[in-house]
Amino acid sequence: MENQKADKEKSPKAKTSKARIPRVMPDVSEYIKLYKEQNYPIRDIATHYQVSVSTVYHAMVASGFSEFRPKHARMSHTRMSKEEQAIALYQSGLTRTAVVQKLNISARTLNKVLEKHGITIRRGIDLVTSANRAAQFHKAYNDHQLSLRETAELFGVSHPIILRELKRNGYPIRQSVDSKNRPTFKLKHKLGGIAGLPTPKLTPKQKERRQILIRIRQKREDDQKLKRLKNYNRAKEYWQLVNEGGLDFEEVGKLFNLSGKTIERVIVRAGIDISAIALREKAAAFKEEQALAQKYWELYSKPMSLEEVGEAFGLSDSTIRATLLRHGYEIRKRGRIENSDRNRLKPRSPKSKKIKQQAVIPSENMEATGQALDLLISNTKVK
Q1: N or C terminus: which one in the chain shows less Cβ crowding within 10 Å?
Q2: pLDDT per residue over 295-310, tens digit each?
Q3: pTM for the complete prediction?
Q4: What values do phi and psi take at 68, rounded to 5?
């Protein structure tokens, strides 16, 4: 152990690894020169020399420097410096995106600075190139009746670019109603070149994008076909249970934990004709109604009236009449029912004549009436 320690102490590597290299600090005069003569802010000086802001500030104070700019002046100076840098970089040919990334400012701030100083903002494409591109888009979109997405796939760009270029150059845009009436083509014919519409020359990036879009659309179409096939097989299974198994939609739905309406909707959407089920249900209903009509006829031929038959079954006479006519039974004419007990003529009994008797006034009444008249006359004064 002692030998190992001695070897470590003697080895020069151990000494050099522990020794720290002192940092060489720049002269304070460099700070003052950059700050005073070149109008650099303290933060930029610290970033340039890879030290902290407080290190630069305290070094300048320790050297006796006291001509610091006020806070608001430093801020305005920094802002003006940023504006000047942004203008210089933009006028040198850099794009707005590059200037924004380099100065770490927002695109809105850069636009305000350029508008403030009256500098024309460059667009992404010149007018001549835009007009030429729009003419090609117009030929594919309006002359050959392609949709915006199909035109975009043809030229290897996105459909908003097609729409923007057409609007910018004054070409008409179809409404959604008009696009339904346009002729449809297969994908390979649309993207492989149409008669009179040459396939445009595409860059490698546009070709790659076009192939990706073709694969995406083809995969989407294949998925839709597979989904339709699965739905058709499922609907066919339901239909076999309904048509051959003799079950109704509700019973089939219980087997698959679905409602009868869902089973019926799946079968109809798959294009299977379910009119046979309707005919079968109609025939069963007609057969049941025929049995009821037989019962109505038995009561009606007793004979009973339509109203009496309806009261027996809790129906109206018009319902009984329509049911009997529907099943070929003959209805009697309106009027009395012949040979019925309740309509046979019955002998009329003569009405009892009232015997007229002479009125007899009792004598007591006569006497009372006479006394009353005498009393009335005696009390009456003659003027």
Answers
A1: C
A2: 888 888 887 888 888 8
A3: 0.30
A4: -80, 145
